[in-house]
Specification:
The chain contains 14 helices and 32 strands. With about 575 residues, the protein is an alpha+beta fold. The chain has a nine-stranded antiparallel β-sheet, with no helix packed on it. Helix 3 packs antiparallel against helix 12. The protein has three domains: about 350 residues, 3-Layer(aba) Sandwich (Beta-lactamase), CATH 3.40.710; about 90 residues; about 80 residues, Lipocalin (Beta Barrel), CATH 2.40.128. The longest helix has 14 residues.
Length: about 575
């Protein structure tokens, strides 16, 4: 994994003291700035549609704030800077901060074993530290994927107790602690529970007393009770079609990984604390913003509860969030003593992109003029070429990634090359050269290159100039219905305490569950089947009889289901 190099001074947030004259001038020209920002949010400025809120901080002052669109479509309530949003994973930095406040008091250490405080966490034979949890390097399986596999819906009421119980039943890790980075919400639920057990207060009470009140964040709380009434909150939605929206229901009653309710005004106060240190101190801020290091000494862009990257040559510390129809983003530019935050209650929105467009207005004089170094390349920045359907069809085929154990299908549809992951999950590829394509409809610069190596077809995927992901052409097995019958039966997971039945349905091997929707799978390799982002690898005994399968799904690997009949 490519190491991300960054000067230490950038990580400790020792802000530049030189006045930013162009920023002061722009602030004076508030009408011009507001017009530019309004243009960025023009698609959200409709009281009959979900919207967004934005705030900009410069030199510990809010220099711009505004709301767009509706907070509640049923009552036509507009969004404003004081509208309360669920901000999902932006919550994680508060959880780390709470842990570090307790460490400062000598009540725990970042290097402590999680089982010291939560003995219900299984003993996996490897020490998992609080630091591992805070940097997504613990190897633990992700709570949301586990719950989904167990048959939970994300509009179910999901409490801390539900998550702790499913964690307690786990028997394996995705990888040894510190060996890899894989985003894991479980770690932050556990960290919040550590805060509660060490402090003797609920996580919501601790953060209210120790963080929100001192910072005068009067409209902020961790929402640990799904029945609690919160005035002036926005509700979340998703776009269907023809200007039609539906409610995207969220009933979480768990905190730490998510569930912070706040406003852009309040989050602006939080962003200021990274330089003011009204709560905590410089040492805590430095630790939060230090890049985490894997066992091999490499970094991966992750700090603690947040990520470090660059935007158009400027150093940024950021995190985004997404739950139900809520979307959020907080980006801090330490060298410019600048921050921008955007919340939205529309699932299809992209607050990160919106926030960085706003940042570009204020930070124009600092931005690298060569936009080829930008992390936010858009389709408009690319020169495409035209390839005929016949020219595209030579890329048709299946490609296998051995490292991550997944298959991808490439095929032509309506004169466009398609990158197929599974039913309902594919992307269009636009040619930028005779053998290279850019993926459309996503928020990163993803390129797909085709070549041949030692007479084997090769597909290389590169995301934002990161380490290449290599897959090779292969021919998936063709199973007849008579062959598929061997895989049918009931399969039980002791870690999820749930059963799936494998049946033949419409000529396909299909997994059924008493709560989850039916899942039809396609053959990938011998004894391996795929469905969307899930892979099912069947295992056999010495007599070639199927004994069960292991399912992997991104943030969960090799979860065992035993064949019971």
């Amino acid at each position: 994994m490519t190491s991300i190099k960054i000067r230490c001074s950038l990580l400790v947030l020792t802000f530049l003291l030189v006045p930013l004259k162009h920023l002061e001038a722009q602030n004076d020209a508030s009408g011009e700035i507001e017009s530019k920002i309004d243009a960025i949010f023009k698609n959200f400025d409709d009281l009959n549609a979900p919207g967004a809120t934005v705030a900009v901080v410069q030199d510990q002052k809010i220099i711009f704030k505004k709301g767009y669109g509706s907070a509640n479509l049923e009552y036509g309530i507009p969004n404003s800077p004081s509208t309360i949003f669920h901000i999902a994973s932006v919550s994680k930095q508060f959880t780390v901060f709470a842990i570090l406040l307790l460490e400062k008091e000598g009540k725990l250490s970042f290097d402590d074993d999680i089982r010291t405080y939560i003995p219900e966490v299984p003993d996996f034979g490897k020490t998992i530290t609080l630091k591992h949890l805070a940097s997504h390097t613990s190897g633990m399986r992700d709570q949301w994927t586990l719950l989904g596999l167990a048959g939970w819906r994300f509009d179910d009421v999901i409490t801390k107790e539900h998550i702790l119980k499913i964690v307690a039943q786990q028997k394996e890790l995705n990888f040894d602690p510190g060996e890899e980075y894989t985003y894991c919400n479980t770690g932050f639920t556990l960290l919040a529970e550590v805060v509660a057990r060490v402090s003797g207060k609920s996580f919501a009470e601790f953060t209210e007393e120790r963080i929100f009140k001192p910072l005068k964040m009067s409209n902020t709380l961790f929402y640990d009770d799904h029945e609690k009434i919160v005035k002036n909150r926005a509700y979340s939605y998703y776009y269907v079609n023809n200007n039609t929206f539906k409610k995207s229901v969220l009933s979480f009653a768990n905190v730490g990984a998510t569930s912070l309710f706040t406003t852009v005004e309040d989050l602006a106060l939080w962003s200021m604390n990274f330089s003011l240190n009204t709560v905590g101190d410089k040492a805590i801020i430095e630790k939060m913003n230090t890049l985490a290091v894997l066992n091999n000494g490499e970094t991966f862009g992750g700090a603690y509860g947040q990520f470090v990257n660059t935007h158009r040559g400027l150093n940024q510390i950021q995190h985004g969030g997404a739950d139900a129809g809520y979307r959020s983003y907080l980006g801090r530019f330490p060298d410019q003593n600048f921050a921008v935050m955007v919340f939205s209650n529309l699932a299809q929105s992209n607050p990160g992109n919106l926030a960085l467009q706003v940042a570009d207005i204020y930070l124009e004089d600092f931005i690298e003029k060569d936009t080829s170094t930008s992390d936010t390349t858009t389709p408009d920045d690319v020169d495409y070429i035209k390839l005929s359907s016949k020219e595209l069809e030579k890329f048709n085929g299946h490609f296998w990634n051995e490292d991550q154990k997944y298959a991808r299908k490439i095929y032509v549809k309506n004169d466009t090359l398609r990158y197929f992951r599974g039913e309902g999950n594919e992307s269009a590829l636009a040619p930028v050269s005779p053998t290279e394509f850019k993926m459309l409809g996503i928020n990163v610069d993803l390129r797909v290159k085709f070549s041949e190596l030692n007479k084997k077809r090769k597909m290389t995927v590169i995301i934002n100039d990161d380490e290449p992901i290599i897959s090779y052409g292969f021919t998936p097995p063709s199973y007849e219905i008579s062959d598929l019958k061997e895989f049918t039966g009931a399969y039980y997971s002791p870690e999820l305490q749930t059963t799936y039945n494998a049946v033949i349905k419409n000529g396909k091997l299909t997994f059924t569950h008493h709560r989850a929707s039916d899942t039809s799978v396609s053959s990938a390799k011998h004894d391996m089947f795929l469905a969307g982002g899930y892979s099912f690898m069947f295992e056999r005994n010495a007599n070639k009889q199927i004994t069960g399968f292991r399912v992997s799904a991104g943030r969960v690997r090799n979860l065992w289901f035993k064949k019971v009949n």
